[in-house]
Design a protein that fits this description.
The protein has about 290 residues and is mainly alpha-helical. About 60% of the residues lie in helices and about 5% in strands. β1 and β2 form a beta hairpin.
């Protein structure tokens, strides 16, 4: 059974070109599913829709609706693959329903809070120069954290003012950045990064104190630490700057389609959640500032 999962993962990587994070999540979900089948002596190519629903019912007791939805997506994609490979004649997961997930409005930092966070790193040190450059670039471009930490030197065009990144599904996009991010990058590249280099010539833009690639987990710790030092009461996460980037652009009059392209959203409905944030903010401003609220 695990051989089928391995074939499926290879299919996702080679033919579907899904993002690595999605592939890892699907792999974990399917290993969990196969383990369940083994415990009941069930064969995935002979399983019924009722038996799949029994499994999903067991997940509802321990997983959030979002995690349940991802498990259903993984299972449905897996069985579509088995049918396409003539391992099964009918897809028992075809009619499975995905639970409705209530969209949660993202946490947004105010402009003042963004300024506080971005000014926190000590730019007299190499690590501080790196942190300032990362925070400025993240807010300037709205990149995902995985995209930010995997930027290479060749992905950044300082003269034209844009970065090139590979988003979900290995889709390449160009995102512009402004003068503040440019200044922080120039300072880091001229002073901070050379001081962090140890041996060799790593291609990555942002390095840890060992001169190696800075991981997502490493950056999470960095932004959490700087957020705590500002005294801001909100929980500051890397994705918060991405949310703030999108929300602040829309509040200033940017069109939804342009923000979608910069964020790398495949579907504009994903971007539309930020319009709810903007409307909420406008309502708050109206209630606070209008003479007859």
């Amino acid at each position: 059974m695990y051989d089928l999962v391995d074939e499926f993962i290879t299919y996702l990587q080679v033919e579907r070109g899904l993002a690595e994070n999605t592939i890892q999540a699907y792999s974990r979900d399917l290993v969990r599913f196969i383990t369940y089948l083994e415990s009941r002596n069930l064969n995935p190519v002979k399983i019924s829709r009722t038996q799949i629903r029994d499994y999903l019912g067991s997940l509802s007791l321990e997983l959030s609706k979002r995690s349940q939805a991802r498990n259903i997506s993984a299972i449905k994609t897996f069985f579509r693959f088995l049918v396409s490979e003539d391992r099964m004649k009918e897809n028992p997961a075809r009619l499975l329903e995905t639970p409705r997930i209530q969209q949660k409005l993202p946490d947004i930092l105010s402009l003042d809070e963004v300024e506080q966070l971005l000014s926190q790193p000590d730019i007299t040190t190499p690590l501080g120069q790196r942190d300032r450059a990362m925070l400025e670039l993240l807010y300037a471009t709205g990149l995902r954290v995985s995209e930010l930490v995997h930027l290479r030197l060749l992905d950044v065009n300082l003269e034209a003012g844009y970065v090139k990144t590979l988003g979900k599904g290995s889709k390449e996009r160009l995102v512009p950045f402004g003068e503040k991010a440019l200044q922080a990058l120039q300072s880091y590249l001229s002073d901070g990064r050379p001081a962090l280099l140890k041996d060799g010539h790593p291609p990555y833009l942002f390095l840890n104190f060992r001169g190696k690639l800075l991981t997502r987990q490493g950056f999470w710790k960095i932004i959490k630490n700087h957020g705590r030092m500002t005294g801001i009461k909100k929980i500051i996460k890397p994705h918060g700057l991405r949310h703030s980037f999108a929300s602040h652009l829309l509040e200033a009059g940017a069109d939804l389609r342009s923000v979608q392209v910069m964020l790398g959203h495949a579907d504009i409905t994903t971007t539309q959640i930020y319009t709810h944030v903007t409307r909420k903010r406008l309502k708050e401003l109206h209630g606070t500032c209008h003479p007859r609220p």
